[in-house]
Amino acid sequence: MMITYQTGDLAKQYHISVRTIQYYDKQGLLTTVTTGENGRRIFDDESKRDLEIILILKQFGFSLKDIKKIMLQDNKLQTVRTMLQQRAIEVENELKSQQILLKEVREFSEYIGESSDASLEKILNTQHYVKAKPKLKRVTRPIMYSIVPVVILQHTSLVASIYMKKWWPFILAMPFLIGYAAYFTHYIYQKVTYICPNCQSTFNPKLLNWMFARHTPQTRRLSCPHCNQVNNCIATAK
């Protein structure tokens, strides 16, 4: 005895809507159907199998047009393999695009404070700051490279002093270390300005406030002279 299923039975079994099955039927994807005495469509085991295949292919992102093409091919499984390989390439490209978008979204959101009261038009300023971010790296990169030999000198002089049990190697290095620290501080202060995440304005803090503010490599805890809000203001190149 042939087992039959009504549209609602299949919809409930596969957790999809009745309209979805009716649409697949209308598109000619479920071919082994009959009409019952009450005018309702009745599906058999072959229809059920076709529906399972459609749902598997749908989860891989195939369109109904592609699925119909697969089901009409003689070597169906080989066709699926070929299309899966192409789909894998598409997904990889989509992932790369999404990763780039995610990075841009996170970068953009960094420039906007949680309680920002700036108007929407300030988003134009935000976009400008984000685009200018690579310029800051070009400004600070030479200093970052020059830190390495300075750190080596500092540690070498300290180790030599400890080993020799005399402080003169470290004392001799101190003027150079202090001079470099002063140069480094002056250089960064002259090259960098700060963005208020609340009002999206840029400003140059006073030197002493800047020097003693809590900071990370990208931000400093500063008071904005435009909105008087204290925030982790973001560094950007002048």
TrEMBL record:
The cross-references to Gene3D superfamilies, in alphabetical order and at most eight, read:
1.10.1660.10
Keywords in alphabetical order: DNA-binding, Membrane, Transmembrane, Transmembrane helix
GO function terms (MF aspect) = DNA binding; DNA-binding transcription factor activity
A Pfam family assignment: MerR_1
Q: Which residues cross the membrane?
A: 143-164, 170-189
Domain HTH merR-type: residue ranges: 4-73
Q: Entry's InterPro entries?
A: DNA-bd_dom_put_sf, MerR-type_HTH_dom, MerR_fam
Q: Which PROSITE patterns match?
A: HTH_MERR_2
| Name of the protein described by the UniProt record | Transcriptional regulator
User: Organism, per UniProt?
Assistant: Staphylococcus caeli
